[in-house]
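pinging the channel bc i need a second pair of eyes. not urgent but kinda urgent?? the chain im working w is below, pasted from the shared doc
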Amino acid sequence: MTDRWQRAEQRYREREGDRRYRRDERAWAEHEARARHRRAAPDDEDDWDDYDDETTVIPRYTDEDQYYAEDPGEYDDDPDYDEDPEPPPPRARTRPRRPDPDAEPARAPQRARPQRTGPRREAAKTGSGRAGERRRRSRAAERKAEERKKRRRTVWLISAVVVLLLIGGVGYGAKKFIDSMAGPEDYAGPAGPLVVVQVHPGDTARQIASTMVEKDVVKSSGAFYEAAVRNTNMSSVQPGYYALPSKSPADEAVSALLGKGSRVGNLVVSEGRLLHDQHDVNTGARKEGIYTKIAAASCVGTGPEQKCVSAEQLAAAGAGSDLSALGVPKWAESEVLAAPDRKRQLEGLIAAGTWDFDPSGTPQQILKQLISASAAGYESTGLLQSGASTGLSPYETLVAASLVEREALPQDMGKVARVIVNRLEVGQQLQFDSTVNYALDTTEVATTDADRSTRTPWNTYAMTGLPANPIAAPSLNALRAMENPEPGPWLYFVTIDMKGTTLFTQSYSEHLRNIDKAHESGILDSGR
C-alpha cells in the first residue's frame, strides 16, 4: 500500500507541475500528517487504497492571513507541536483523475494540526498579531468608554454645583430685596446702659454709624445713617468722646449724640495752670488744678449711676514710678526720675489747650493719653532742636517756658525769655516771684520776705539756675518764645500796673526806679 501511495503521489506532483497554482505548503504538511495517521491505523481501514483517483489528497489552498487568524494558543499544550518544524519538500500539483466507479470511495483525510513556527507563535502570545490587535482595540474602547462615563459624571457634578449656586444666589438676592423693602434693622427700645463712643476728626456720617454699631449703640449702620441724614444738626458734631445709651433706636441715638450733656472727656487746660489746687490770698477762691479739671471731665452719667475718676486717684497715679506707663517722653525721663517731689513730677507735661480723653479708662491710662498728646504738641514746635541757640536741653526749655508763662503777657514773652537766657549765661539768680508761689497753697502776685527766703527746689530767690521742674502748664506761645528769645541785653523787668505794663532794662538802678512805679500803682501790695 505504501508503494501504491508513493506512486499516486508522484503522479499527482507531475500533474500539478503543469498547473500554475501555488501549492500551500502548510496545507501539504497537514495532509502528510493525516497520511501518517492513516498508515498507523488498522488494516481494515485501508480498503480505500485501491481507489485510483488521487483528487482526495490534493491539499486545500489556505490563505496565510486566514491561517494565522486562528487562536494562537490552540496547540500550546500539544507535546507533538513543533514551534519551528522543518518545512515539507515541495510537491507539484497534478490534475485530479476521474474516479474509478469500481473502486471503494476514499475516506476524507483528517485535518492535522497546523505546525506554527516560533516567531509566529511568539507574536500570537505577545499580541502582535491580528488577534492581539483586536484585544488592544477592545481594551482601548473600554478605556474610552470609561473616560466618557467619567466626563459625563463630571458634567453632571458641575451642572449640579452651578444649579445650587444659582439657587443660593437667587435666594440671597431675594432676601436682600426683602430686607431693602423692610428697611435696615433697628432696635425698638428701651435703651440700655451708657457706653462711650469716640468720634474721630474727619469722620463722616457713615464712619460714625460704623462706630455706633461696634459699640452696640444701634442695631445697624443703615438705620443710624438714615436717621443722621434726616437731622440737619449732624454737621455740628465735634470730634471727641460721647456717652450714649446702648441698644437705642437710631433716631434716639442721633438725638443723644447731638445733646448738650452727651460729650465727655473734654478737658480745657488754661495757660499757667498747675497740677494741684491753689487758693488766692485775698479772696480765698480756689484755683482748680489740672487733676481736678480731669476728674470733672471724666464723669459719665448722672445721679447715683454717675461714674467719675477722682482727683486723688489721678494724683496717686501721677506719682507712680512707671514713667512709660504714664507716657513720659524719653527727653524728660531722667529729670522726672530726679524730681524732688513725686506728687509734682508730671508738672508741665500736660500742656495748656483743649484735650479729649477716654473717660472710661483708668487714671493711669487717662494721664498717659494726655501726656502723650501734649508731648507731640511740644515737639511740633521744634523743642528737640531748640538748644542750638539757647544751650538748654528740651526739658530745661520746657521749665523755662513755664516761667515765661507765669511771668509775662503774650506780647512780652520773647523779652522775658531773653532775660532768662541772659541771666543764666552770667550766673545771676532769676528771682521770679512765681517760683516762690509755686510751693505755696495760697498765692498772690506779691510775695513776702519770709516766702522769698524759704529755700525750696523751685525758689529762684534762694538758688541760681532753673527750678527743679516746670511750675505750670506752658502754652505753645511761651514755648516758642523760649526756643527763640527776642534779641536784647535785658537783665531786669517788672510789671508796674494792673494793666500788665512791663518795663525791661539792663541797668539795675533803672530797675529799682521801675519797682517804685509798681509800688505806687499798688500792684505789689501784699494781702498778708
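so The beta strands are 194-199, 240-245, 263-264, 266-269, 278-280, 286-287, 353-356, 442-443, 492-495, 502-505. and The radius of gyration is 60 Å. — does that match what u expected or am i reading it wrong
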